[in-house]
Amino acid sequence: MLRRQIIAGRLLPGTKLREERVSTAFAISRNTVREAFRLLAHQRLVDHTLNRGVFVRTVTTDDIRAIFATRRLVEPLGIEAALTDDTVQTALRALVDESVIAAERHDWDLVATSDIDFHQVLVSACHSTHLSAMFEHLLAELRLAFLLLPDRRALHAPYVVRNGQLVSLLETGDRTGALAGLREYLEVAERHVLDAVAQPSRVNGSAGTAGSAASEPTHPSTSPSY
């Protein structure tokens, strides 16, 4: 539950998670809470700071570079596998269609979720449980970077089209085009996220900071308070 709330943006980067409050909220022992925190730290979703406590992790530019370096190694494997997997292609097309509808409704959190799911499904074409689990953790960490940014539309809108282009290349069996498209996609995305995290004011043309991400719709009336 904590993991889902972090990834969904209900617990923003920098939020302190208090052991006693989590224990009370879920009616579980504090030993269980500590184990949950340990697992979340292993997945790089929280940081434990000595004498200060546990906080939802704030990713750095070095983290983002490492994430994209790994994506360049892993996602081409998904492209190769998806070229001959009609079921995966159908699932990818459905996610593109979902993101188009979400973009038309200006639901950029759903667009972000569809984008994350798109790349997870792509890698699932490899039919490797271990690879999919590792990649899921990687994308969850990337989602933390998304949550720092004040303008979700500027970040996510371009990739609705790019995901559609990738699917079209897969559907036509264009291996060279799909691999080249993925390489360009990841290069552009890395620059975009790095630029946005380093200087978020350049994303929306305002004087915002990374901390202003809290002004995004995070459903404060229902957000947990730990």
What's the layout of helices and strands?
Layout: H1 2-7, E1 16-17, H2 19-26, H3 30-42, E2 46-49, E3 53-56, H4 61-82, H5 86-104, H6 108-124, H7 129-146, H8 152-171, H9 175-198, H10 201-204
Antiparallel strand pairs: 1-3, 2-3
Question: What does this 3D model show about the protein?
Answer:
Mean pLDDT is 87; it is low at 201-222. By secondary structure, the protein is mainly alpha-helical. The protein folds into two domains: 2-58, Winged helix-like DNA-binding domain superfamily/Winged helix DNA-binding domain (Arc Repressor Mutant, subunit A, Orthogonal Bundle), CATH 1.10.10; 61-201, GntR ligand-binding domain-like (Four Helix Bundle (Hemerythrin (Met), subunit A), Up-down Bundle). β2 (46-49) and β3 form a beta hairpin. Helices cover 67% and strands 4% of the residues. It has a three-stranded antiparallel β-sheet with strand order 1-3-2. The protein has helices at residues 2-7, 19-26, 30-42, 61-82, 86-104, 108-124, 129-146, 152-171, 175-198, 201-204; strands at residues 16-17, 46-49, 53-56. α4 crosses α7 (129-146), α6 runs parallel beside α8 and α8 (152-171) runs antiparallel to α9 (175-198). It contains ten helices and three strands, in the order αβααββααααααα.
**Number of helical stretches of at least 4 residues:** 10
Tell me the span between the first and last alpha carbons: 13 Å
Tally the beta strands.
Answer: 3
Low-confidence stretches: 201-222
Major sheet description: 3 strands, antiparallel
Major beta sheet, strand line-up: 1-3-2
The proportion of strand residues reads under 5%
Strand and helix order: HEHHEEHHHHHHH
**Over all CA atoms, what is the radius of gyration?**
18 Å
The percent of residues in helical segments reads 55-70%
- How much is the average pLDDT? 87
CATH topology of the largest domain: Four Helix Bundle (Hemerythrin (Met), subunit A)
CATH superfamily name of the largest domain? GntR ligand-binding domain-like
Shape: elongated
**Broad structural category:** mainly alpha
In CATH, the architecture of the largest domain is Up-down Bundle
